[in-house]
Model the fold of this input.
Amino acid sequence: MRRVAITGMGVIAPNGRSTHEFFDALVACRSGVGAVDIPDADRLNIRIAAQVRDFDAAAHFPRPRLSQLDRFSQFALVAARQAWTQAGCAGAVPPQACGVYFGTGFGGAATLEAAYDDLFRQGENRVRPMSVVAAMPHAAAANIAIDFGLEGPCMTYSAACASSAVAIGEACRAIGAGALDSALVGGAEAFITFGVMKSWEALMALALEDKRAPSTSCRPFAADRTGLVLGEGAGALVLESFDTATARGAPILAEIVGYGISNDARNLSRPEVQGQVRAMRMALAEAQRNGVGMSDVGYLNAHGTGTKVGDRIETDSIKSLLGELAHTVPVSSTKALHGHLMGAGGAVELIAAVLAMERKIIPPTAHLAVPDPECDLDYVANVARPAPHLRAVMSNSFAFGGTNVTLVARRAD
Done:
């Protein structure tokens, strides 16, 4: 199997419009969580979310193009442009040897909700002409392929919260096997609409707003956590075989050395220790074959959504996998600051872990003031931690539907 390098990264997140702005916000504990700004917000019981505020789509796309682009595709394209530029791919990557592997949990939620509003509330007898192509989950991947002229496989993965992590892992397998030389990968989500928020309210999984400090409402692993905060954004990475990247002198930011994927096959919404452990074990076994052992992993970016059950199960999974070593590995959930980005989460959080290696500092689990006795690992509470020797990282993405994904990356030097 060929080695797989990361040569470019891009992020659009509630607390950052570039990789460096995003990571600076994580280290400084700057939260993107706040009062939700959508139509009919006054009818919501939970009125907080992590939104990409003041995003001017017209600054990125000409007006005729905007009618074809749902907000999730806009985010995907902007993040992909950042990654493509950093990797220096323009004119250097053969189109037929480069694919697109992208994830989303929902697709064009805003477009779909606007169509329903036109039909059922406004009484219109037609919807906007481009509604189908804007709303389809495949729209982000297809638009990326069109914008960059990529003629290799164009794939969309929809596995709820693990969507973009699956996309990254499957692209790694394709590159490793020699099916293609490079890929633009990642995920995007933009589903903070009235209907979606109401649906999540019905699940009773959303965090209650902290009236004193709304931005601190998401509290992974804390005893006073009350649930997750919905977020939106996109993460994109350029992956290449090492030979391809080195031949053209591309910057090699990191190497992906492990990918594990499993399914609980038990419950649509309740996570299971056994399935999570299988995914982590598979990823670590592959990493071991690539020269990275668990003792080399100096940081684990947890799924850590802030739900009562989910955080405890993930803690138990890490302890089941690692035994006594579990208490020596720094673990943090960056969702406290950018919210749960669903289909984009795996990509954005892997980027956070890779940047931790680059910057040699581990982002904290913010708002963890009240420890939970059942969640007793080293969660890097509240303050970023210098990590001068950080050389390998893990990232977990565990989804509704039972899909579990773990990715392992190491420094390239």
Notes: The first strand starts at residue 4 and ends at 12. The first helix runs from residue 19 to 27. The two ends are 20 Å apart (CA to CA). The chain has 13 helices and 14 strands.
